[in-house]
Amino acid sequence: MQGAQELRSEAHLQVRRNDEVEAQRRSWTFYEAIIIRGKNMSKSANTHIWTEGGIKLVLSNKKEAMVFFRQAIKLAPKNANEFFERGVAYQTLKNYELAIREYDQAIERDPQNVQAYLNRGIAHQTLGDLEKAIQDYNRVLELKPDHPQAYLNRGKANKQRQQFKQALADFKTAARFGNPDAQNILNAMGIKWKT
């Protein structure tokens, strides 16, 4: 049997070549190799399982990706990445409540995880909980004050709340930081945003 590292690398290569069937075969062979080793897995094996879950996400096999993420979480329950990736998988499956729960776990383990706050904000916003969404976007901006997507998303949430002055300020800031969606919104409104 090929080594786990080699199988993982070949699966990644097949993803880059857009050969979904072969990538799936190799990633499942890799997964089986990991399962056979069972309790003898190192921390690097956990990273490999996490990576295989990522391959499944790339291949749009969200439910299969969950198998990998569950296994990775069992091996390293304190690692924020696995919870984050599971949140991404749930969010792409449009299961926003479960996505939020996973992002909560990721943030608990890594309170500086900007992307977890951003994604959780998007999930809250999609569910109509604009206050929680804005809280998450504010936290992103505390951690990374030049994050254009957080400004754009907060602007959209403020627009939904009919806080147009705040929304406009956020759209302008996002546009200045180079967000093309914010630039298009302002251009469509005939509003200058360039400094």
Structure description:
The chain has helices at 4-16, 20-37, 43-58, 62-75, 80-92, 96-109, 114-126, 130-143, 148-160, 164-176, 180-189. It is mainly α. α3 (43-58) packs antiparallel against α4, α4 runs antiparallel to α5 and α5 (80-92) packs parallel to α7. The longest helix has 18 residues, at 20-37. The chain is 77% helix and 0% strand. The model is unreliable at 1-59 (pLDDT under 50).
Please report the total strand number as a whole number: 0
The span between the termini is 60 Å
User: From N to C, what is the helix and strand string?
Assistant: HHHHHHHHHHH
Number of helices: 11
Main sheet overview: none
- Please tell me what the overall shape is: elongated
Poorly predicted parts: 1-59
Structural class: mainly alpha
Estimate nothing, just give the exact number of structural domains: 3
- Oligomer kind: single chain
Helix content: over 70%
Taking all residues together, what is the mean pLDDT? 75
What is the gyration radius calculated from CA atoms? Answer: 20 Å
Proportion of β residues?
Answer: under 5%
Describe the protein's topology.
Elements: H1 4-16, H2 20-37, H3 43-58, H4 62-75, H5 80-92, H6 96-109, H7 114-126, H8 130-143, H9 148-160, H10 164-176, H11 180-189
Tags for this model:
mainly alpha; Serine Threonine Protein Phosphatase 5, Tetratricopeptide repeat; 11 helices; 77% helix; elongated
